[in-house]
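Query protein
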Amino acid sequence: MVIKAGAVIASIGTIFLVIFATVLLVFPITKLCDNGPKCIYISNAPYPLNLLIAPIVLVIILVVIAGGIAIIRLGKWFFSKKKLYDKQ
């Protein structure tokens, strides 16, 4: 059951990563510079999708994927240890 939960979590993270990449490819990023060293990057995506284009969103997505994979690996490790102790 734990392994299935990890797989679901990793799959949800992967789906969000695909959505993030699709929004980046479909709606370009515009660079605005006012003759200075600082520039502003703005997405041309409509309002609800515009909120997805931020570095923190990408970090959260990658952490969700890594957490799901960690749950899968820990679940497999735990069940292999449990089988080993059950044999003895």
Q: What stands out?
A: The mean pLDDT is 92. The chain has one domain: 2-87. Helices lie at 2-26, 47-50, 55-87.
